[in-house]
Amino acid sequence: MLVSMVKTMNEAKKAGYCVPAFGVGNEVNVRAVLDAAEAKRSPVILLVMAMNTPDMQYLGRICQDLGVRAGVPVSVILDHGATYEEAIRAIQAGFTDIMIDRSTLPYEENVAQVKELVKAAHAIGVGVEGELGHVGFGDNDAHNAFTVPSEAVDFVERTGIDALAVSIGTIHGAYKGEPNLQFGLLEELAAKVSVPLALHGGSGTGDDNLAQACRMGINKLNIAYDLYRGAIDAIQAVDCSGNGAYGLFAYIHDGIKKTAEHFMDVAGSTGRA
Questions:
Q1: Helix H or strand E encompassing 71
Q2: Catalytic residue among 35, 79, 162, 254, which?
Q3: Which of 21, 68, 79, 263 has its Cβ near the most Cβ atoms within 10 Å?
Q4: CA-based torsion, 86, 92, 93, 97: positive or negative
């Protein structure tokens, strides 16, 4: 069933677990993630990264068609919408939700631009996630700007967003070094912010760290790098020589499905659908 993540994240917030969001860019990815969700009876969010998607309209149709058929709650969200036009295209493509990242802008500009898109999205029932603080892309925390709780409260109130992505020490992409999550900061954010919280850059953070974050108030967990790594590992584990090459997409499917199932357990979403 196709639903907005606003519904599933709020249910997760009340019950103390997290809904995993997996990066997808084609039909093979989508089917593998949905098969994992069916197997684990878990709600799931399909995370569409525009930079990896040459045709958002077509992928949106695939996600919608397969999501409607699923026996578990499925949401489709634009990840890190870079422009106003990109966000509107995602809405036109039938996404249930959009994520608007203006975290590198000055605070007031972030508020103004996100508020504008919230007004447009909410007019047709599309949920919106914003970001405050900044989760960098790299191998250490130097790229990060942690979320300030007082600003987070103000940001949610002024923009009207449905979910807030927070920065507490994770990094997008391959995490090198020792993860150092600010659990004290997360505890404060969870206590003060009224909407569900999202954690970006979950890959490489460590199962124990992620499980604790999900128990403490993270209600959406983004996983992309580890998902693709699972597909690569699955291919490397089999003999693809000769006619073995014909199994390529099956290997990718199985690697992604296995990885997604693992993170559903970590997030605590298994059996929640």
A1: none
A2: 79
A3: 21
A4: positive
Report yes or no: 219 and 194 within 8 Å, Cβ to Cβ.
Answer: no
Q: Pick left, alpha or beta for residue 42 (phi over 0 → left; psi -120 to 50 → alpha; otherwise beta).
A: beta
Closest CA to 112 of 150, 159, 148: 159
3-class DSSP string for 72-130: CCEEEEEEEECCHHHHHHHHHCCCCEEEECCCCCCHHHHHHHHHHHHHHHHCCCCEEEE
pLDDT tens sequence across 163-221: 999 988 777 666 666 677 889 999 999 999 999 999 987 777 889 999 999 999 999 99
Tokens found for residue 11: 């249910």
Q: Model-level pTM greater than 0.70?
A: yes
Question: How many Cα atoms are found within 13 Å in the side-chain-facing hemisphere of 135?
Answer: 26
Q: Which two tokens stand for residue 15?
A: 């019950």
226 is catalytic: no
